[in-house]
Amino acid sequence: MPLKQFRRRLLKYLPFIKSILILVVILFCIFLIIKAVSPFYNFAKRNNISLKFISSLLLNQNLPLKSYQDRTNVIILGIAGGEHDGSDLTDTMLFLSLDFKKHDVVMISLPRDIWLPSIQDKINTAYHYGEVQKKGGGLIMAKAAIEEVIGQPVHYAWLIDFSGFKKLIDLVEGVDIFVEKGFVDEYYPIPGRENDDCNGDPKYKCRYETLRFEKGLQHMEGERALKYVRSRQAEGEEGTDFARDKRQQQIILALKNKIFQFSFFSKQDKLKQLINIVNEYSLSDMDLSEKILFAKFFLELKNDNIRKIVLDNGDKNKNREGFLINPPIDSKYKNLWVLVPRSMDFSEIKQYIACQITDPNCVLSP
Questions:
Q1: Topology of domain 72-358, per CATH?
Q2: Which residue from 23, 71, 207, 328 has the least number of CB within 10 angstroms?
């Protein structure tokens, strides 16, 4: 075929050839996009993350979580973990009531020794009994136990192993804590020495270490921060569970602030570690999108917008009353040291909590 004739035919079919080439390029690009997006799509599908959720998150629009009267209620539970006795007792119980519209949070610490008539035991055993009845039932029973005391619905629960708590603090390179009252605890248990006979020492001193916290600003790594919140054998007021509850609130808020300030997205390895710690050492009935919404709101919230409440038995030295009392040791409480409502039911506490949640200027007091 003469070259001139070939060129004419080529020019005749050139638009068609161009269309074919463009189509091939488009299909190839679509293939690459699908290949790149497919893992993210499958991940989102597995975790119930919708396109609406992603767009709302990027546009900073809050999607509603489960709520009651515009408030979402979450309990944070802390357990020691491990294989020893009492490893699944929830020695930390924090109730958070969040108002996404008003950027308001009420944080309530519940003492672990509250006696619960429904289970005939302390409130910190509810998670344990729920798990014994049915695997996965611990969070359900713990939520029901909290509701029984405070009279507010609990929409979500988040259980955290203290080992993960320690790792989180180490990941963000520690937290700065102002110790309001110094204290010494000579009986902080040493893990692994619970059954040590201490060469016949009747006081078993080898089972314990002495903790000292001086008044003032201190930088705490994970191990020391964990001891700060778990110590409960100090002399005086700091040896009470109520002081412990306040220290727990203090550490959690300090950790919240540090996580928010920490540049995780510029430190991808740290971000991966954060996700791994949360997945390994915590359990929740939230799906991933709900966790992201909760974490985003809570981490961005200013501490001034968090109203902190501790339920306790008052302070005689300060002439301050509390809603709880410590009754004499009795068989009806399994001969345990417990706390019960002074009114013998939880109605007074429920009224107080409802007032605090609905009205920042609530004047009700014990």
A1: Aminopeptidase (3.40.630)
A2: 328
